[in-house]
Amino acid sequence: MGLLGLWLALALALPCLTTAQTTRGINVLFVSDESNPVAEKALDVALNYVRRTASTGIQFDSFQRVIANTSDARTLLEALCEKYDNSLKTEKPPDLVLDFTQTGVTSETVKSFTHALALPTVSASYGQEDDLRQWRFLADDQMKYLVQVSPPADMIPEVIRSIVLAWNISNAGILFDDSFVMDHKYKSLLQNVPTRHLIAAVEDVRNVKRQLTRLRELDIVNFFVLGRLATLKNVLDAANANKYFGRKFAWFAITQDKGQLKCSASNATILFLKPEPDPTSRERLEKLRTDFSLTTEPEIASAFYFDLALRSFLSIKQMMDKGQWKKLNYVSCEEYQEDKPMVRRDLELRRALREVQEPPSYAPMMLEEHNGHSYMEASMRLEKVTVVNGQSVSAEVEGSWKLGLDSPLSVKDASSIANLTAASVYRIVTVLQKPFVMETRDKSGAVKYEGYCIDLLDEIRKIIVFEYEIYVAPDNKFGNMDEKGQWDGMIKELMEKRADIGLGSLAVMAERENVIDFTVPYYDLVGISILMKKPETPTSLFKFLTVLEREVWLCILAAYFFTSFLMWVFDRWSPYSYQNNREKYKDDEEKREFNLKECLWFCMTSLTPQGGGEAPKNLSGRLVAATWWLFGFIIIASYTANLAAFLTVSRLDTPVESLDDLSKQYKIQYAPYNGSAAMTYFQRMADIETRFYEIWKDMSLNDSLSEVERAKLAVWDYPVGDKYTKMWQAMLDAKMPNNLEEAVARVRLSEGTSEGFAYLGDATDIRYLSLTNCDLQMVGEEFSRKPYAIAVQQGSPLKDQFNNAILQLLNKRKLEKLKERWWSTNPEIKKCDKQDDQQDGISIQNIGGVFIVIFVGIGLACVTLAFEYYWYKYKRNPRVTDLAGQRGGKAPRQQHLAVIGRGASDDLSATAKLDAAALGALGQAYNYRRNGNQLPGVNQAWQH
């Protein structure tokens, strides 16, 4: 049993021994750029490490190098094929192609070469998956042996994206030197980030100040500098000379070097990022530095290339040892046929790289399934460096960042470095439009802006902390697209990233949403309306006199005097009148003697509802009175009816009340101003009608249709209509105003509502104009209604932030208060007189003359009263003297009575208000009675 067991053990050990004896060395083809000496020196250290470290078990049968020193792809390809074909002739084809080219033609040439010949390759080229054009569309089997790992200099710039997103930076100037390759970063570094940025190589020391000045002229205040420590010092010194330090500026210095940041700034605080090795790898890194001379700077790059080369060698060695390395079929460059591409099956080079257990010398390798996502997961230390008078006073560690795509920034205390970043300043483009945005000047003459939108912006700032710089669009337009698809106004400023926010009464439109983003609406639906001059109804205080012509008034006056005179004549000569037949009417209560004064009064009062009073007693006088009553009734009725009609006619002059009314008339010209949204609306509506007409015409004239189908399309009238086509032509004929001010001026020049000019524009403009101008009015209902919203760049994160803020303001009813302030309680709003329309009564301007007549009548009455008082006191009332004193005895009794009789007849209020006629009769009766005479009718008065 012992001999048998020994034989079996020998038999089992023999295959292993045979395998160990037949294990061959590795064949490697190394390719690199002449401009990448760090990679070549790191490879030499790796080879030295393999030779001196027997535990790796790595041997090389063939190691060939190709150092590219040209940008000519053909020359490089010929050099690669020469080395490759020679290896095939010597039966030592490459098991591994180690590609340390960086980018550009050399990198793409090597990738094309390895892809075509299906050579297992580990590449350290720059770029993400889409940047590797020759390896962009690899099959799953090809992804297993064509492996790319991004070097640290390719991943470090990604910290800029993390910083911009973390602190919401709106602009960035990115400068770099030749220690970084940024060709592929121009489009991808800040892709889909709403940050205006510029990426440029650092110019030489003499021109860097001018370069910074150009960036500042582009309103860039956040500067990122990537490069060696010497490059950082040059740029920061130039910034200090330009006085680009302070609260308005932010500086980020990023390097691959180890060491302290130095510059000659007088007073500056800079955020400095530099790499640091993983704590678990520091001992190994120090050993490599001292024992194997891994001292090439930058250290992180040397360690990366060393680790990647060693890990690649070990992966091939392990696959061979485990029997996973299959014999590869090779084809020479001359025998390669493009239509028969070579593909290796189940060559798991990527998995073998992940399974290597060799400890990292700087940081762990992150190897993903797809190219462009594998890298060294090193850390960058974030320091806050304070420089005073050219000396670094302090360098406080504030956080860290790990290399990676979209890797977050880790900060110890965000508030401690919040003030180190430039304030979030957004550039806002606007259009001047009352009352949304208005330009004013303060006491110092500086330009300021106010209005509804400015108040809205200030309310949003209470929720989202930021600062802003506002400017008016160069053409003061909201933005329209021309026939070539080019935009102008605010939209162009946002598209070209010269502005971050578009603020104003900007309507949400489908074509605008294709190129920019809108927030939720902050203003209700607003349409197009009509602005016209308010009709001026002519007024007159004596308008009631204009109802009848002057000749009619003269005839009425003549009839009045003639009738009054005729009535006086008839009453005087008729034997049946009161004054000629007093005895007959002595018991009648109506005793009126129609003298000339009474006749005038009777005819005047007969024209009023009060009536003329007591009528004449004689028949002839009554016929005259009846005739005058009939005449007065007709005149008064005619006057009343015509007065009402006369005051109503002027108020019925409303020729235009809607857009349809405007389109059906030809006396009033109408148009929006050139380049406005209203102009675009009418132009497009006209174009749509034209297209519909062409479609209908083509259908009706289509010869391929049958007679029945063609007959169904044959109509006398066009079925759709051409309303907007005619209106658009009328607008072109009217010559559109260039701006709102010109349009309003043309409206004001209109002679009335039935002729002149009508402006069509945004209802908000027209409503505000009608509120602040008493001579303008808004006509008709709104049409083509759209909401107003704030515009941002496409893909901007500001959209979500502003949406949240506006919704909060809506819930708090803040927007309603803003509307009330600028539309209801705005001090610019004028209190205009009410228009004399059909709903209101007759204005005082038209009926005020009646009051003047009253005042004139009262004035004349007062003057008459004064005249009567004067006449009675000084002209008709003689003084009573003592006649007895003059004659030396008593005055005769009859003289006293005569005086009393005359005084009583003149003044009705004297002697206890007795009737003047009765008092006169009393005096006469006394004289007659004293003389013994009898006078008819006197005895009764005397007895009374």
Automatic annotation (TrEMBL):
- Extract the coiled-coil ranges from the record: none
> Would I find Ligase among this entry's keywords?
no
Residue ranges of domain Ionotropic glutamate receptor L-glutamate and glycine-binding in the record: 435-496
GO cellular component, alphabetical, reads: plasma membrane
* Residues engaged in binding L-glutamate: R512, D762
Where is the site described as Crucial to convey clamshell closure to channel opening found in this chain?
Answer: V656
Checking SUPFAM superfamilies in the record gives: Periplasmic binding protein-like I, Periplasmic binding protein-like II, Voltage-gated potassium channels
Where this protein primarily resides, as one coarse class? membrane
* Family under the similarity heading: Belongs to the glutamate-gated ion channel (TC 1.A.10.1) family.
Q: List where in the cell it is found.
A: Cell membrane
The protein's organism comes out as: Thrips palmi
Which residue windows are transmembrane per the record? 551-570, 626-649, 847-871
Annotated membrane topology: Multi-pass membrane protein
> Got any disulfides in this one, which pairs?
C81-C333, C774-C832
MF terms in GO:
ligand-gated monoatomic ion channel activity; signaling receptor activity
The UniProt keyword set, sorted, is: Cell membrane, Disulfide bond, Glycoprotein, Ion channel, Ion transport, Ligand-gated ion channel, Membrane, Receptor, Signal, Transmembrane, Transmembrane helix, Transport
Protein's name in the database? Ionotropic receptor 25a isoform X2
In the record, which residues are listed under signal peptide? Answer: 1-20
Location of the Ionotropic glutamate receptor C-terminal domain: 425-825
